[in-house]
Amino acid sequence: MHVDHLSADEISLLEDLLVTHQSVAWVALTRDAQALPAALCSLIGEHFVDFFHYPVKHMALLDFVLDHANGMSYLRQRRLQQEVTAAYEMVGSSEPMLKLFKSIRRIANVDAPLLITGESGTGKELIARAIHERSERAKGPFVAVNCGALPENLIQSELFGYEKGAFSGAQQRKIGKVETAEGGTLFLDEMGDLPMELQVNLLRFLQESCIDRVGGTTPIPVNVRVISATHVDLAGAIAAGKFREDLYFRLNVLNLHAPPLRERGDDTALLAHYFFNRFNQDAGHRIHGFTRRALACMAQHAWPGNVRELINRVRRAIVMCEGKIITHQDLRLSGHDGSAPMVTLDEARSRIEQDTITHALSAAQNNVSEAARLLGVSRVTLYRLMHKHGLEIQEAG
After folding, report:
1. What are phi and psi of 277, to 5 degrees?
2. CA gap 160, 344 in Å, rounded
3. How close are the terminal C-alpha atoms of the chain, in Å?
4. Residue pair 286/324 in contact by the 8 Å Cβ criterion
5. CA distance 202 to 108
6. Residues whose CB is less than 8 angstroms from the CB of residue 336 and which lie 6 or more positions away in sequence, other chains included
7. d(Cα 315, Cα 323) in Å, to the nearest integer?
8. Which three-class secondary structure state does DSSP give residue 344?
9. Domains and CATH numbers, the chain
């Protein structure tokens, strides 16, 4: 990287780049190190492996330093990956995952509500557990509740508990999930499936840090950190009247996004080998890996079920494989030979919708009102769709 003649704004942008890409090892080129501003000298000293004066007179030395930088980059990448992932099966070295690991470290000791978004199967509970284990609440319990799996008539008693005699069959007091998490972390998965009437109770708990057991009369203070997760577009649910906006803002003080597997590049092969090594032990090590075509097919597959789908396919292939190596047929990916990636209808519709919105915004020179007129929708609807597709564009004056 050539660092001469950088303005103050450019130095600030460079610092953002360096902080964002911590796994990269940088080497600087400068014509006169003594003429560099103090801020840039400090930046080079903190983030760069070495620097050279330009033009370079000793190419052999530069080759040696670049080789060293390459080795340092690999070690940094492995450190960032292993620091968080070892205990939680969060395996990955792609840029989206390295950014996620960095965010986990930053958020872990901030004792505020956190909302994790992402498609089903992306490992949202693993993220929540990693944050809990790195927080000051690590010695306390981690209590996970799948709000979408509980019968609607039992959610309130499961979350907040009940007193003896509160209803027919309540023969003794029961402590709810919220109280069980005292001193630790409460993970509320599939928040988008929580009925509206129960959202009010949860909002009160978040506002006052107190709960009422069903049939109880005395508020009970509870000290827990709340991490919630959803695969539902909550902004869309709010617009549709299915989710409370005030609850959304209470849950979304901090937020993380679990990247889908199709956006994680070489992580697909990395994960496949990881789970192969784990589950192949049960098969007596009779299988020796994947064919090249199997790996190519996995790279092209859209993975609508994300990591959960990958685990299921690999595990089944290990059991059903009749040879010494897993083929694309064993993975049931025979239709994906690398010639073209397969996508679901929902994914195809989503891509067309995003492309259409992007084209309209471009045609309207980023004026959201004009783009909404071109698309034949209201400005509120367009803002919701932009949020859904991650298109954060400021409306032109």
Report:
1. -60, -35
2. 39
3. 37
4. yes
5. 23
6. 297, 300, 301, 328, 342
7. 15
8. coil
9. 8-83 (no CATH), 95-257 (3.40.50.300), 262-320 (1.10.8.60), 346-388 (1.10.10)
Query: For residues 146 and 188, is the Cβ–Cβ distance under 8 A?
Result: no
For 267, the token pair is 């992580």
Query: Per-residue DSSP letters for 31-85?
Result: S-GGGS-HHHHHHHHHHEEEEEESS-S-HHHHHHHHHHHHHHHHHHHHHHHHHHH
Distance CA 201, CA 161 (A): 13
Token digits for 276?
A: 């192969």
Q: Report which secondary-structure segment, H or E, holds 145.
A: strand 142-146
Provide the token pair at 122: 């992306």
pLDDT tens, residue by residue, 332-361: 986 544 444 455 667 677 778 887 888 788
Share the mean pLDDT of the chain.
81
Query: Which H helix or E strand runs over 299?
Result: helix 292-300
| Contact in structure between 154 and 111 (CB atoms under 8 Å) | no
C-alpha pair distances (Å), 88 with each of 132, 228, 384: 11, 18, 34
Max distance between CA atoms of the chain, in angstroms, equals: 87
CA distance 152 to 168: 17
pTM beyond 0.85, yes or no: no
Mean of pLDDT values over 233-260: 92
Mean local confidence (pLDDT), 112-130: 93
Q: Position of tokens 């840090």?
A: 209
